[in-house]
UniProtKB/TrEMBL annotation:
Species this chain originates from: Proteiniborus ethanoligenes
Protein name: Type IV pilus assembly protein PilM
Entry-linked Pfam families: PilM_2
Occurrences of domain SHS2 (ranges): 10-177
SMART domains (alphabetical): FtsA
Any one GO BP annotation for this protein: cell division
Membrane-traversing stretches: none
The organism's place on the tree of life at top rank: Bacteria
Length: 354
């Protein structure tokens, strides 16, 4: 894996429907040094599912955040997540990446029945297999709507930043896990298949990464916002009370059988997260059924909902797979919450593959 030396710092932005995270960081040959971090609440209605809905308001808020936090870097990376990003694993004859690119240019609509002219299409070879006795290469194809790409580059330009890279989150997280050796100071990850799960506000991003190579990625349209709505439907909490009430939960994997308000809160939280787990299970089963011997060795949770106490136990009990909540990565130096900023950090890494 060839990774460039970044002699100067880079701004990396992760825009979400609830919160926007920004870092200023520098990468050398051995690690990523995060210099500054800040986050802002994304203005309501300005961003949804990867689409910018109110450009001027979003630009105003991010620009103010850059100013308030004395971010001096002008070169910018950006990472996105959207259900509109289409990923497919397609079998091709054994060809070079360049030859496959040529085939995709003229034949992609045979595999993806859509107007290809509206998408930016990227691909990478992720493995080999045999199909009806013939060796084939497995190609991961990613199609991103051009209007998403163009509006994000427009956003960066209007923030007086120089757009260098826009990446999608599954690709970014696969690179940081390939680049690193140990998470949480004790869990080695080389030569393992990882389910990296971003439990976000508006949705859940599932990335299956086999020995550093992204194999499968899907975005599930259930997230922390659904949990908030379910709690508010059951209790007369003010929205400002929600965070406090969720923080009072000691372990979402444990119910005491009573009908107390606390137990009802735990139950609705557990039930909502289990509905997310049910969707995640389908993604994992899709991966494990593709090839004999495919299995997930470890689940890594990150994103807002991963802060719920006991969520790692809930996942490990359900899947019977070692599950951890991301806290640290050996190749990243950061003085604040790595879990919160991991998507921004991950996009700093570049290699020759898309």
């Amino acid at each position: 894996m060839k990774l460039p030396f970044l002699s100067k710092s880079i701004v990396s932005i992760d825009i979400g429907s609830y919160e926007t995270k920004v870092i200023e960081a520098k990468k050398n040959n051995n690690n990523i040094q995060v210099i500054k971090t800040f986050s802002i609440l994304t203005p309501e209605g300005s961003y949804n599912n990867g689409y910018i809905k109110n450009e001027s308001l979003l630009i105003e808020k991010i620009k103010q955040g850059l100013k308030d936090n004395n971010i001096s870097s002008k070169e910018a990376y950006l990472t996105i997540k959207s259900t509109a990003i289409i990923t497919r694993e397609i079998l091709f004859p054994v060809l070079s990446s360049k030859e496959i690119e040529g085939m995709l240019k003229y034949q992609l609509e045979e595999y993806l029945p859509m107007d290809i002219s509206r998408y930016t299409v990227q691909h990478r070879i992720i493995g080999k297999t045999f199909d009806a006795g013939t060796e084939k290469v497995i190609v991961l194809v990613v199609a991103i709507p051009k209007d998403i790409v163009e509006k994000h580059y427009f956003l960066l330009n209007n923030l007086n930043l120089k757009p260098l890279v826009m990446d999608y989150q599954s690709n970014s997280i696969s690179k940081i896990l390939k680049y690193s050796s140990i998470v949480n100071d004790s869990d080695p990850i080389p030569n393992k298949t990882i389910a990296a799960i971003d439990l976000g506000h508006s949705g859940t991003n599932v990335s299956i990464i086999e020995e550093g190579v992204l194999q499968t990625s899907r975005v599930i349209e259930i997230g922390g916002e659904d949990l908030d709505n379910n709690i508010l439907n059951l209790f007369q909490f003010r929205k400002e009370e929600l965070l406090e009430k969720k923080e009072e939960i000691m372990d979402i994997s444990v119910l005491d059988g009573s009908y107390s308000d606390y137990n009802r809160l735990v139950n609705v939280t557990k039930t909502t997260i289990e509905s997310i787990i049910d969707k995640i299970e389908k993604v994992i089963k899709f991966y494990t059924s593709k090839e004999l011997g495919n299995e997930v060795n470890i689940i890594i949770l990150y994103g807002g909902l991963s802060n719920m106490k006991g969520i790692d136990k809930l996942f490990s009990n359900y899947f019977r797979i070692n599950t951890i909540v991301l806290e640290s990565i050996d190749k990243v130096n950061i003085q604040t919450n790595l879990n919160k900023y991991i998507n921004s950090i991950s996009s700093i890494l570049r290699d020759e593959e898309v």
